[in-house]
Design goal:
Helices cover about 45% and strands about 15% of the residues. By secondary structure, the protein is of the alpha/beta class. It has 2 domains: about 10-50 and about 155-315, 3-Layer(aba) Sandwich (Rossmann fold), CATH 3.40.50.1100; about 55-145, Rossmann fold. Strands 1-2-10-7-8-9 form a 6-stranded mixed β-sheet, sandwiched between helices. Strands 5-4-3-6 form a 4-stranded parallel β-sheet, sandwiched between helices. Helix 5 links the parallel strand 4 (about 95-100) and strand 5. Helix 1 (about 10-15) crosses helix 7 and helix 7 (about 150-165) packs across helix 8 (about 180-195). The longest helix is centred in the middle third of the chain and has 17 residues, at about 150-165. The radius of gyration is 18 Å and the shape is globular. It starts with 7 loop residues before the first helix and ends with a helix. The relative contact order is 0.17. The mean pLDDT is about 95.
């Protein structure tokens, strides 16, 4: 069975559904003159929760029935999707439970709790099973998948509509790859409206399951190494997400951890913008010339980085 992708009509409907929850974020030029491309930043770190995840979460919840809403919502997330779901749940006055891995940054866990979410910390393997099973034993509520969900991908795809309106003549786009919901949502729009642009997914070298899978043509399992770049990568790629990626993108790009740190510092220095590791990864790839020349859009997925870690990275430069 072929994995579905969101249609252009579904993305346009999502755009209306998320009004009032997500904002239209700016697209700005990276203030550097010595890069191999003209790099633009789509600043999703400026969303109310500091991440693009509010888009998919809001659209998914908008499609729930009153009975489902009454039961509350559940998600499995290392941080940003959980914040998106918790934010919207708080606005609607419904319960929210988050299944989080014990590797999740405390700054993101604290943010979820501030938003009223109940957090259950579990082992990485238990967390991954919650993704696969779309449930967690003993927890009630409607499960919202962080990436493998058409409504979530359609919400993410609204980013593509905004970019096309703000910079219709861009040549390439680089999108962080975590589970693939952001990449596949945006790429679904671009394949319809701008099929000739180059579309890439960005990973970090210490956790690049998409690249490992792409090289052999099938989903692979890897052993990821922990780093400050916590919003991308994992131990594997869901088969249905891999199938979508093969149809929608030109391929994955990989940046080293030190390159991501350098990109983070550059964005802070030249544009005075705070981004997290996942958000800086596409920029690192573009700065290395991996996305080619011309006008390259980098989706800065979020800015939820621990301030102590941010200070450490900035000082290291």
């Amino acid at each position: 069975m072929t994995a579905d992708c969101p249609t252009l009509a579904q993305v346009r409907e999502a755009r209306q559904a998320i009004v009032g929850a997500a904002i239209r974020t700016p697209l700005v030029r990276l203030n550097t003159s010595d890069a191999p491309a003209e790099i633009y930043l789509k600043l999703e770190n400026l969303q109310p929760i500091g991440s693009f995840k509010i888009r998919g979460a809001a659209n998914a919840i908008a499609h729930m029935t009153p009975v489902q809403l009454e039961r509350g919502v559940v998600t499995a997330s290392a941080g940003n999707m959980a914040q998106g779901v918790a934010w919207r749940a708080r606005e609607l006055g419904i319960p929210c439970t988050v299944i989080a891995p014990d590797t999740a940054p405390q700054t993101k866990i604290s943010a979820i709790e501030r938003l009223g979410g109940r957090v259950l910390i579990v082992s990485f393997d238990e967390w991954w099973r919650a993704f696969e099973q779309r449930a967690y034993p003993g927890v009630e509520g409607t499960f919202i998948h962080a990436f493998d969900d058409l409504n979530v991908m359609a919400g993410n795809g609204t980013i593509g509509l905004e970019i096309l309106e703000d910079l219709p003549d861009f040549d390439a786009i680089v999108i962080p790859w975590g589970g693939g919901g952001l990449t596949c949502g945006i790429a679904s729009v671009l394949r319809e409206l701008k099929p000739n642009c180059r579309t890439f997914a960005a990973e970090v070298a210490t956790a690049a399951p998409l690249m490992a899978s792409w090289k052999v043509g099938s989903p692979q399992v890897i052993e990821p190494q922990r780093s400050f770049v916590d919003g991308v990568g994992g131990k594997s790629v869901f088969p249905q997400m891999f199938e979508r990626a093969r149809r929608l993108i030109d391929g994955p790009l990989v940046a080293r951890v030190n390159e991501v740190a350098a990109a983070l510092r550059l964005i802070a220095d030249r544009n005075r913008v705070i981004v997290e590791g996942a958000g800086a990864t596409p920029v690192a790839c573009a700065l290395a010339g991996l996305a080619g020349t011309g006008k390259v859009v980098c989706v800065v997925s979020g800015g939820n980085i621990d301030l102590a870690k941010l200070a450490e990275i900035l000082a290291a430069g």
